[in-house]
Specification:
Strand 17 (about 395-400) and strand 18 form a beta hairpin. The protein folds into three domains: about 25-45 and about 290-490, Rossmann fold (3-Layer(aba) Sandwich); about 50-230, Rossmann fold, CATH 3.40.50.980; about 495-625, ANL, C-terminal domain (GMP Synthetase, Chain A, domain 3, 2-Layer Sandwich), CATH 3.30.300. It has about 650 residues and is of the alpha/beta class.
Length: about 650
């Protein structure tokens, strides 16, 4: 019998070989309504600090590229790849670490980084970690998109930093002038006005003394910085990562060396291919988010890999840069969010070079940041089978900023949209019955000790047994086989009541909309809190453009308002109405969203889903118009 056939003769998918490290779990009962789930495999030993891994790779592979980024020219164009080796990374970390020690910086006066991923950002963060000085990569949107700088002020009020870094004065000058106190040192890579500076100055910084980044890098390292590194340990704070702050101001999550190192071993034990050979990543995910920084940079550094910084992004304006990079650099593992995979799936249909390079040696695709629509998944698999004769496993899991980030991973190639899998080794999941759902809570060495300078918020985050309360709901993939693990079942706090007192279960209803609208629905947000009817804001996939019959450059608003698209979603809503059993399960009104959910505004979370609360908050006027019947192109069941 062929290896890819079942006993009944039905063909089953063939996957590029990928080993999973947690095939079995144990489940034990606790108090009524409480159970505990753990991996059978124990957690292996992990490093005491991430700098141990930097020292290791600088010694055994000094000339290997740690990171690379295309040259950024003054006119905005990009050039050849600029490489940073492990030896150079260690040398830069020691020099910058010495400069930071000379300034007397510490946890009470940490470093804040305002700008995007770059080699300078990487070196400064390594310098902080080497010297034992915490840093915080703040969302660039706090400086470049925000007009009132409220969240940036909150970051500064919370952390009281002693030094601030930005990539260039032109983009960050106004925010620095508005928020950074006069006594806080400002370091710039471009626009500092020194010799050879290719950047433009900012009028907002006129008269303010700034330091060139190269001045930090030129500092001579001494034995003091090595002693500072040796004094760090598992409890040393490496960084502060702010939560999305969808309903309140963001909280500063304390990230320790123990969290980061333990989680890297947990990830590697769950996905052993990461440790089999130095991984190669092509990655745009922002370092102010735990997925991009702790997860992806951590994987690279822990296993001696190479990360190519992708200056693209899954937006119409920037996706071309990502595709350009993927035509040139072949990753061994590829991470992205669903909108990115959707664009890649579409591009691979007609781009032979993209298919050839991207699929040449990749062992695993991995998504997070939102729900991946099953049709996108299926499209990727179809292209892979046609190109290389087998599928690439699409992996995922569940976690959060507070869990470093990874708490769970799928453990089989037989995975469907919504599956999140089993706990990593060393993690205990507490499954608690809450209002008809099951909340998952975390305890393990990768879980944060709390929030910086927020003792009350820290107390509220943990239960009486010391488990982190996530607010994430889960259910079994297969109740008859616990070893397959869990599925994501929405956010408990997202469920709401209608004016009639009827309870709306958001997760299952969202899933029905996505399934009914496939392949044209990326995600949906339910509306109607304390109102009479349930509404939906639907975020479409790029596939919806095929319905409109418009040129590729047509704005998404025009696509969604076209008669054919409106008719297709009218049918979706009609079909949903036929199966609804009551007001809580009936979508009474729907609007198609031209503007995608924003990761910078917290509308897309690090927990693998859309943040309903953040979308409802930032688009409150639109929701009000939807239910007041004043919103154009509202679709209702017929």
């Amino acid at each position: 019998m062929p290896a890819n056939a079942t006993p009944t003769g039905a063909a089953v998918p063939r996957y590029r070989p990928l080993t999973f490290g947690v095939p079995h779990v144990t489940l034990r009962e606790g108090a009524p309504g409480v159970r505990y789930l753990e991996a059978t495999e124990p957690l292996n030993r992990y490093a005491e600090r991430m700098t141990d891994r930097l020292l290791h790779w600088a010694a055994v592979a000094p000339d290997r590229t740690f990171m690379a980024r295309r040259e950024q020219r003054p006119d905005g164009s990009t050039g050849d790849w600029q490489h940073l080796t492990y030896a150079q990374a260690l040398q830069g970390a020691r020099r910058i670490g010495q400069a930071l020690l000379d300034r007397g910086l510490n946890a009470e006066r940490p470093v804040v980084i305002l700008s995007e991923n770059s080699l300078e950002h990487a070196l400064l963060s390594l310098g902080c970690i080497y010297a034992g000085i915490p840093y915080c990569p703040a969302s660039p949107a706090y400086s470049t998109v925000s007009q009132d700088y409220d969240k940036l002020r909150h970051v500064f009020d919370t952390l009281t930093p002693g030094l601030v870094f930005a990539s260039d004065a032109a983009r960050f000058g106004r925010a620095i002038a508005a928020v950074v106190p006069a006594g806080v040192e400002v370091v710039l890579h471009r626009g500092h006005g020194g010799d050879g500076d290719p950047g433009a100055a900012s009028p907002a910084l006129s008269g303010r003394a700034v330091t060139a980044f190269d001045a930090l890098l030129a500092t001579e390292a001494t034995a003091a910085v090595d002693a500072a590194m040796a004094a760090t340990g598992p409890d040393t704070i490496t960084k502060f990562l702010f939560t999305s702050g969808s309903t309140k101001m963001p909280k500063a999550v304390i990230n320790t060396q123990r969290m980061w190192c333990a989680n890297q071993v947990q990830i590697a034990q769950s996905l052993p291919m990461l440790a089999e050979a130095p991984p190669v990543l092509v990655d745009w995910l922002p370092w102010n988010h735990t997925f991009g920084s702790n997860h992806n940079v951590g994987i690279t550094l822990y296993h001696g890999g190479t990360l190519y910084i992708d200056d693209g992004k899954p937006t119409p304006a920037l996706m071309g840069e990502t595709l350009r990079n993927l035509r040139e650099i072949a990753p061994t593992v590829y991470f992205n969010v669903p909108t990115g995979f959707e664009a890649i799936a579409h591009a691979m249909e007609n781009d032979a070079q993209l298919r050839k390079t991207l699929l040449s040696r990749v062992r695993m695709f991995f998504y997070s940041g939102a729900a991946l629509a099953q049709p996108v998944w299926d499209s990727l698999h179809a292209t892979q089978e046609a190109e290389i004769g087998e599928r690439i496993v699409m992996a995922t899991g569940l976690g959060m900023t507070e869990s470093g980030p990874s708490a769970m991973f799928i453990n089989s190639p037989d995975v469907r949209a919504g599956d999140v899998g089993v706990p990593t080794p060393g993690m205990t999941l507490k499954l608690v019955d809450v209002d008809g759902k099951t909340e998952v809570r975390y305890r393990g060495p990768n879980v944060t000790p709390g929030y910086w300078r927020a003792p009350e918020a820290t107390r509220e985050a943990f239960d009486e047994e010391g488990f982190l309360c996530t607010g994430d709901a889960v259910q079994w993939i297969d109740e008859n086989d616990i070893h397959r693990g869990l599925r994501f079942d929405g956010r408990i706090a997202e469920d709401f009541k209608l004016a009639t007192g009827t309870f709306v279960s958001v997760g299952p209803l969202r899933a029905k909309i996505i399934a009914a609208g496939a392949p044209y629905v990326q995600d949906a947000v339910l509306t109607g809190i304390n109102l009479k009817e349930v509404g939906a804001l639907v975020f479409p996939t790029q596939a919806v453009r095929t319905l409109a019959g418009l040129p590729p450059e047509a704005p998404m608003s025009q696509v969604l308002e076209s008669a054919t698209v409106q008719a297709r979603f009218q049918q979706v809503l009609n079909d949903l109405a036929k199966t609804a059993t009551g007001s809580a399960g009936r979508i009474a009104r729907m609007h198609l969203m031209a503007e995608p959910p924003s990761i910078d505004k917290g509308e897309v979370t690090d927990k693998g889903s859309i943040n309903q609360r953040a979308v409802l908050k930032h688009r409150a006027a639109l929701v009000e118009a939807l239910h007041a019947d004043t919103l154009p192109f509202t679709i209702k069941p017929r």
